């Protein structure tokens, strides 16, 4: 196989290697994308956790206020029952005054309980809304992850086919040419062969020595750039 035939074969291999490089990049990016989606979802859950904590705090406050109100009402009932038993006007007046004070306190507590109940209802609505939103988000995220996983499987199948095809092509060239090409392609991420542009390397733009240009034109051996070490050719 002459140098031109080797160059033609390696050009075909390079086209496949570019596809292979791109597919590998896509495959490698999928787990990272899935991880980012998981992290994003976990971050979204923090708002729900905050709302649920707030709801618990309000419910505890509600329970405390209701307990205080129940205590006041119990005392009112107790003192009401004692009114018939007192023997002096002074004791009767003192009990009535205490009952009035307790009822006034109870009235304030009732207002506070109502406010807390309203607050509880509002936060409960927010919690339900956030749970619904997270449920939708989780379903969407799960579907997207499923699609990405299926895509990874398809890409791996494509990669296997391209790799096999590429292997058959590089088998056609000499072991020396194959070794050189494989070494360069591994380092240069899918670009081992480049054309001469004017009198410079088509990749790094370094101006080539006249002797090097002559060697490329003669096509007696593969010639590499002195600067970037890629294989050079002239169409």
Describe the model.
- The protein has 235 residues and is mostly helical.
- The protein has a domain at 25-172: Helix Hairpins (Orthogonal Bundle).
- Helices cover 79% and strands 5% of the residues.
- The chain has a four-stranded mixed beta sheet with strand order 2-1-4-3.
- Strand 3 and strand 4 form a beta hairpin.
- It starts with a helix and ends with a strand.
Put the structure in a nutshell.
The protein has 235 residues and is mainly alpha-helical.
Top keywords for this entry?
235 residues; mainly alpha
Count the E strands.
4
Largest sheet: 4 strands, mixed
Helix content: over 70%
Q: pLDDT below 50 for ≥5 consecutive residues: which ranges? A: none
Q: What percent strand? A: 5-15%
Number of helical stretches of at least 4 residues: 4
Q: Could you give the order of strands across the largest sheet?
A: 2-1-4-3
What sequence of helices (H) and strands (E) makes up the elements?
Answer: HHHEEHEE
The pLDDT mean sits at: 93
CATH architecture of the domain at 25-172: Orthogonal Bundle
Q: Can you tell me the CATH topology of the domain at 25-172? A: Helix Hairpins
Radius of gyration, in angstroms, nearest whole number: 41 Å
Termini, distance in Å? Answer: 18 Å
What is the molecular shape? rod-shaped
Structural class: mainly alpha
Specify the CATH class of the domain at 25-172: Mainly Alpha
